[in-house]
Specification:
Length: about 200
Amino acid sequence: MNYQKVKFVAAYGTSSQLPASSAPEVSFVGRSNVGKSSIMNKIFGRKGLVKVSSTPGKTSTINFFDVEGVQFVDLPGYGFAKVAKSEKGRWSELIEGYFAQDRRFALVVSLIDIRHEATKDDLKMVQFLEERGLPYMVAFTKADKLSKAQQQKQIAAIAKQLAAAGANPIVLATSSETGQGIDDLRALIEDAIQQES
Ligand SMILES: Nc1nc2c(ncn2[C@@H]2O[C@H](COP(=O)(O)OP(=O)(O)OP(=O)(O)O)[C@@H](O)[C@H]2O)c(=O)[nH]1
Ligand SMILES: [Mg+2]
């Protein structure tokens, strides 16, 4: 896939605005601030295309990007405490509404911060993906913050938590700072698109 051909498509504020899905979709989910928008920029090789900020809650709409006919979907984050209740409600509506629709889900990339235990919301997310039988994988983010030995330890610990929740996905350590894991992630995305179509 030629990621240089990436184009912003549109931003949607409610799930009812979403157009019917006619192309394979690769979507990115995870708690607020985990690094969803950053990893998409890294995959595309474009610094500022997907909006990133140090304040959690940057992405408040569902944003679609197109790469040669494949749709990359940036979703708002879940689990951020300091966001107004009304705004949180709107984000859950967006995330739940998106997954409730009959769409061409080629791959859901579920992001978990490698430095911490999976949160209750992270576990709920992977359990939901399991139950729905959607194709998904887990990418651990911010691997640059840990040594390789610490990364291995955290991967094992979080994978154990996921297994206890009934999920045994493919997992991959990534960093949007150093690019660790990004080529492998691109390859997994492309495999998933092949499988879907
Ligand atoms: N060190 C490091 N920082 C990262 C990495 N990925 C993201 N960040 C930082 O984490 C913060 C949040 O990144 P975003 O990409 O905006 O996270 P998000 O998941 O899209 O957040 P929301 O849109 O609020 O849900 C930013 O300050 C990023 O620079 C990474 O791999 N390594
Ligand atoms: Mg974001």
